[in-house]
């Protein structure tokens, strides 16, 4: 599949001029404009290049660490399966953590439970040397 990077660039230019970022918190799950990326990096999909992400660490009102989510069940040490609102099965891709600007946030779709969030953080810390 050939990626249309120009289409993503046009969308990214629109996102970049957003002045007011939405208010967000850790543990929230949002649709996020992740765009088209290189190689095995997770892409957004559809005309808006969106993908669900989990906010894992809020640094300030502008940026946070986010983990892209997938519905593909994987059980290696680099993935964390969980269920959130309305029994939606999801998997956090721990190896794809990235710093994200709040302007990329589209809309909130749910929240991870406190228990799952604590387990996810423990699993993520175990990946660090």
Which descriptors would you attach to this protein?
129 residues, 20% helix, 7-stranded antiparallel β-sheet, alpha+beta, 2 helices
CATH fold descriptor: SH3 type barrels
Number of E strands? 7
Residue stretches low in confidence (pLDDT < 50, at least 5 long) are none
Classification by helices and strands: alpha+beta
CATH architectural label = Roll
Please tell me what the overall shape is: globular
Topology (elements, then pairings):
Blueprint: H1 5-16, E1 28-33, E2 50-58, E3 63-70, E4 79-84, E5 88-93, E6 98-101, E7 105-111, H2 114-127
What does this protein look like?
The chain has helices at 5-16, 114-127; strands spanning 28-33, 50-58, 63-70, 79-84, 88-93, 98-101, 105-111. The protein has a single domain (5-16, 25-127), classed as SH3 type barrels (Roll). The protein starts with a helix and ends with a helix. 20% of the residues lie in helices and 36% in strands. It is built from two helices and seven strands; from the N terminus they run H-E-E-E-E-E-E-E-H. It is α+β, with helices and mostly antiparallel strands. A hairpin with a 3-residue loop joins strand 4 and strand 5. The chain is globular. Strands 1, 2, 3, 4, 5, 6 and 7 form a seven-stranded antiparallel beta sheet that branches.
């Amino acid at each position: 599949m050939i990626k249309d990077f120009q289409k993503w660039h046009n969308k990214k230019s629109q996102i970049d001029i957003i002045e007011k970022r939405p208010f967000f918190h850790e543990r929230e799950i949002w649709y996020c404009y992740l765009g088209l990326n290189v190689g095995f990096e997770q892409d957004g999909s559809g005309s808006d290049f969106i993908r669900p992400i989990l906010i894992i660490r809020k640094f300030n009102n502008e940026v946070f660490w986010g983990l892209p989510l997938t519905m593909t069940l994987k059980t290696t040490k680099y993935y964390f399966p969980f269920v959130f609102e309305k029994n939606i099965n999801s998997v956090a891709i721990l190896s794809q953590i990235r710093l994200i600007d709040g302007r990329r946030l589209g809309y909130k779709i749910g929240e991870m439970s406190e228990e799952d969030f604590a387990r996810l953080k423990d699993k993520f810390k175990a990946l660090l040397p």
